[in-house]
Amino acid sequence: xxxxxxxxxxxxxxxxxxxxxxxxxxxxxxxxxxxxxxxxxxxxxxxxxxxxxxxxxxxxxxxxxxxxxxxxxxxxxxxxxxxxxxxxxxxxxxxxxxxxxxxxxxxxxxxxxxxxxxxxxxxxxxxxxxxxxxxxxxxxxxxxxxxxxxxxxxxxxxxxxxxxxxxxxxxxxxxxxxxxxxxxxxxxxxxxxxxxxxxxxxxxxxxxxxxxxxxxxxxxxxxxxxxxxxxxxxxxxxxxxxxxxxxxxxxxxxxxxxxxxxxxxxxxxxxxxxxxxxxxxxxxxxxxxxxxxxxxxxxxxxxxxxxxxxxxxxxxxxxxxxxxxxxxxxxxxxxxxxxxxxxxxxxxxxxxxxxxxxxxxxxxxxxxxxxxxxxxxxxxxxxxxxxxxxxxxx
Length: 394
Ligand SMILES: [Fe+2]
Known about the structure:
- The protein is an alpha/beta fold.
- The chain folds into 2 domains: 13-184, 3-Layer(aba) Sandwich (Rossmann fold), CATH 3.40.50.1970; 190-393, Dehydroquinate synthase-like - alpha domain (Dehydroquinate synthase-like, alpha domain, Up-down Bundle).
- Helices cover 51% and strands 10% of the residues.
- The protein is built from 14 helices and 8 strands.
- Helix 9 (266-278) packs antiparallel against helix 10 and helix 10 packs antiparallel against helix 12 (326-345).
- 53% of the residues are buried.
- Bound molecules: fe (ii) ion.
């Protein structure tokens, strides 16, 4: 798709490989860093995953690193402000985020507070205020293969007092360096592997079909889908094989670059709402909702989905003779992937299986139409449209 006008950016340097973490000290020295703050959580410390990074820093003669391991599963503005305080108090000069989307987004939030010499992230709500350069060298080391947060311009931080999620979008939030090392993900349990992988697939499919898609984001999306369809089953079959994990980490990154530039649509809008109202884990919501979102968009995006059929179904695509049937067949390929993941990991196929109750559907629909992602969906959707989609996915 070639729009009349588009912008595309990914300025993050990528280090990808079986011992990529060992090269972080070199990158830090290039950025004149001497005392990085390693941001992570207690679970990653207890599993020895954070220590792989700390040891690499020590080996690279950066023994002064400070470790902050208090980032909770669902981070908040208070945690962000605390990280910024520790960064200043300890005299740190860079952040290395080791974790999933929550840890990386916390680092992004803290970098805003530190750059502006402020004490509270709440002052910077909205996307337009992040002008000027970021003053914090920033390395992201993802420990799941899904969010793509290591290469995205967005951060979502919860304001626990007002019960709202604050969204920030700025090129200033892109990490300087993203490090993909399979040692970070070889121990992921099957269901997390499956759900995070489907989040990445959803990023690629939505980015490819939404209003801001462009030729460059399309390339990244197609490449991500190819890797996911080949290596998500492989990573479940042989989870300890580093090649499978590295391929999924690359897929999540490619999908992240794609949607960071092209944005996502109705599946993410409804999925965010399912998380906020009913606590459905993001990746599981994505897997359940993706075929329903594609079906909703079919009349306007069918041709685009059809273009993805070869990537989603491989040689199975050649069985679909008529071009008009390819979009529908692409949806069937996603459903087949979901059934396989359900069999192998017990991942739910419906919202009711995921713990959503019928009386929650109106609140989810209301939250979804207020979500920013819905504006980029290829087809307009109102409250009734979303409610009908939710009933089909229930
Ligand atoms: Fe997502």
